[in-house]
Amino acid sequence: MNAIEVQDLYKSYDGTQAVNGISFEIGYGELFGFLGPNGAGKTTTISILCTLLKPTSGRAFVAGLDAGKESDKIREHIGLVFQETTLDNELTTFENLLFHAYLYGMTRSDAIGRIDELLSMIGLQNKKNELVKHLSGGMKRRLELIRGLLHRPRVLFLDEPTIGLDPQTRANVWNFIKEMKRMEGTTIFVTTHYIEEASDFDRIAIIDHGRIVAVGNPQRLINEMGKATVTFGATDSATVQTLLGYGMADLGSGRYEIRTEDPDLFLKQVMNRSGLKIDDFRINKPVLEEVYIALTGSEIRDEYVDRPASRKGRHR
Ligand SMILES: Nc1ncnc2c1ncn2[C@@H]1O[C@H](COP(=O)(O)OP(=O)(O)O)[C@@H](O)[C@H]1O
Ligand SMILES: [Mg+2]
Predict the structure, then answer these.
(1) Is ligand 1 within 6 A of the CB of residue 39?
(2) In the predicted model, what is the mean pLDDT of the chain?
(3) pTM beyond 0.90, yes or no
(4) Whose Cα sits closest to atom 6 in ligand 1?
């Protein structure tokens, strides 16, 4: 059994088809990203998995338990970090965490040890006795993150955990999440629309209009979806003739370029020809963002096609 199994899930709010027939599995210990633009159905899906919302039809299993029938048991095994904060501002950091630990039936000594461990991992040890209302937004988000992990859930659900955070806090949050996955084997289901943050996840699903439009390892999606660009510099006329013979385009200033699905193979072919005088080559692989835009946003994709120069510029 997988950590999460979703079978043909639908959810409609009178008139709106928020989730429109999705199926996927997540293995234990995976860091899985659910990516999509606003209104795609991410929060609806995560709410069904967390048993906060009932699907219109279809089934979902979390930690081997049926989300439709065993919601109380599922809640023992999961941790939640949602977009809107649910901390008690009038309590201290420590009190917020201890209250949560009691809700989950942890013993006081276990809770205290775990709180100290997590506070120092996330860098909030010096805020332990501070009232939460005096913490910054980034600190509150980090506090919610460790609260979600306090009772050692098997699956952690995060809905847009880095939205609105500064780059340093975002990096801190991701490092911590990956550390927990590595140290405790926690399965992590995370929604985000910061595509680039998902490039080193184990797998991602791209969701749009309530449907999954792609699923897989992000690097593999990049390789499958996007063409890379290979660029050579050459001035020797025989070399230039050979490069043009390979179908490379003349960019001017002695540079030649080709778009290809297999840049490594192309490079190998050219490099194996003897007598070529190439002074520089570059491979620009597409980024995940381009895969995402190609699948979800035709307006943005058209804009990108009109401005190929800016795309190349980003990689240099
Ligand atoms: N409680 C609700 N009542 C009616 N429509 C809703 C409700 N929640 C979400 N929706 C609609 O369902 C669609 C998916 O929303 P949501 O799951 O929140 O998307 P995401 O989290 O990807 O932005 C959107 O069109 C949204 O307007
Ligand atoms: Mg949402």
Answers:
(1) yes
(2) 89
(3) no
(4) 13
